[in-house]
Specification:
The chain is α/β, with parallel strands linked by helices. The protein contains 6 helices and 5 strands; from the N terminus they run αβααβααβαββ. β3, α6 and β4 form a beta-alpha-beta unit. The protein starts with 7 loop residues before the first helix and ends with a strand.
């Protein structure tokens, strides 16, 4: 199934396809994200960190990143909520990042210098959207949680990450499969490690 999270027509087509094929949706994992919109295709993380500081990153690049990482999640989730409501134990998992934690970034740590208005702040906003959906859907029993995959080696970071894709996906899968008795409104990492918002 093709789905462009920045295209309302694509989102609606995907929701329609799921409805026609399955009639409901049990689990929605929002994993689409970009870390940059400009710069060379094979840009190193160090080069990206230097040019994406708050005083340097272009507002247009920030908008493009947020379009996928924030507004895309909002749009996709809103489109699929009617199908999630038809499930007996629905779960939404938003793949965030420890880099989106304001608590983490407001204290000295090795990654603090990477926080920027683009990727980092978009994940902070995603955390807020996760909590907003958790509150909104609480009475209906739909679980909404955020997870961080850790520094996973993908195209997002030019494959400079230290975790495998399987390691990065493990927490999202664990949280998605908790079922109706699982928690809602949490932010966790590897093996149920609590992360601060």
């Amino acid at each position: 199934m093709q789905l462009d999270v920045t295209d309302p027509v694509s989102i609606q087509a995907a929701a329609t396809q799921v409805e026609q094929q399955f009639g409901r949706l049990d689990i929605l994992i929002n994993n689409a994200a970009i870390s940059r919109a400009n710069g060379p295709e094979a840009e190193t993380m160090q080069d990206y960190i230097k040019r994406s500081r708050a005083t340097l990153i272009s507002v247009d690049e920030v908008r493009t990143i947020w379009e996928t990482n924030v507004f895309g999640v909002l749009s996709v989730t809103q489109a699929f909520v009617p199908l999630l409501r038809k499930s007996t134990a629905a779960s939404i998992v938003n793949v965030s990042s420890g880099l989106g934690s304001l608590t983490f970034n407001s204290t000295p740590n090795p990654y603090r210098g990477t926080f920027n208005p683009g990727y980092g702040a978009s994940k902070t906003a995603l955390n807020a959207i996760t909590l907003a959906f958790a509150i909104d859907l609480e009475a209906e029993g739909i679980k909404v949680n955020a997870v961080t995959p850790g520094f996973t080696s993908t195209a997002l970071n030019n494959f400079e990450g230290t975790e495998t894709v399987e390691q990065g996906a493990a927490e999202a899968v664990r949280v998605a499969l908790l079922g109706g008795d699982g928690p809602s409104g949490t932010f966790t990492g590897s093996v149920n490690e609590a992360y601060p918002w």
